């Protein structure tokens, strides 16, 4: 989320829905920004050799701009106490079947996995902990994709073994994709025997705190606030002797 806010080459918008609630108004405000890049101080030069979200390098700046930034939506969830509640399993399966699905981040104690689908009562996952060489474009502008592939085949594990703390990911390339995703989520609430994993609301509930700081555009006044927001350093503690 921090990378998407400050980068100067991508127009991706990254939203993390907290408190098991997806607020459609917040997402639309984030994705319908007039800025070409989330956090860019100025538009990139047209002459740049870098590709912008798949646009050819000779595309004009206006062609790169759109009324909707491609959205990466991450929803952290806890679907039980010490083990996953069976009432959520059918809903989780339906999430994998959505065309907008990016999969699920999760695992079990001491094992983190990236889940990409399911077969029956088993989840299909990849191991995200393989270090691969960085990719550098060659002289022709092509990107070698050797390190984009897994060195080990996908594995399976029982859904019942899944730790209840997960994060579900979705990608909506256009506003139509997002509207379609919202309709699919609303239909999930009608599935018999399936318990909704999160709530989808139009506006921010009154009991919520201030809007997500990442909906701000990091200009000179907001940059310091965002840096402090993302500061991951531990606070200083003093150990008192008894």
TrEMBL record:
State the source organism's domain of life: Eukaryota
GO: which molecular function terms?
Answer: cysteine-type endopeptidase activity; protein-phosphatidylethanolamide deconjugating activity
Official protein name in the record: Cysteine protease
Give the similarity note: Belongs to the peptidase C54 family.
User: What does it catalyze?
Assistant: [protein]-C-terminal L-amino acid-glycyl-phosphatidylethanolamide + H2O = [protein]-C-terminal L-amino acid-glycine + a 1,2-diacyl-sn-glycero-3-phosphoethanolamine; [protein]-C-terminal L-amino acid-glycyl-phosphatidylserine + H2O = [protein]-C-terminal L-amino acid-glycine + a 1,2-diacyl-sn-glycero-3-phospho-L-serine
This entry's Enzyme Commission designation comes to 3.4.22.-
- A Pfam family annotated for this chain is Peptidase_C54
Q: Which InterPro entries match?
A: ATG4_LIR, Papain-like_cys_pep_sf, Peptidase_C54, Peptidase_C54_cat
Instruction: Kindly list the GO CC terms recorded for this protein.
Output: autophagosome; cytoplasmic vesicle; cytosol; endoplasmic reticulum; mitochondrion
Task: Report the function annotation for this chain.
Answer: Cysteine protease that plays a key role in autophagy by mediating both proteolytic activation and delipidation of ATG8 family proteins.
Name all Peptidase C54 catalytic domain ranges: 2-184
Biological process annotations from GO: aggrephagy; autophagosome assembly; mitophagy; piecemeal microautophagy of the nucleus; protein processing; protein transport
The primary gene name is: Atg4b
What keywords are annotated for this sequence in UniProt? Autophagy, Cytoplasm, Cytoplasmic vesicle, Endoplasmic reticulum, Hydrolase, Mitochondrion, Protease, Protein transport, Thiol protease, Transport, Ubl conjugation pathway
Question: What compartments host this protein?
Answer: Cytoplasm, Cytosol; Cytoplasmic vesicle, Autophagosome; Endoplasmic reticulum; Mitochondrion
> Does the UniProt entry include the keyword Lyase?
no
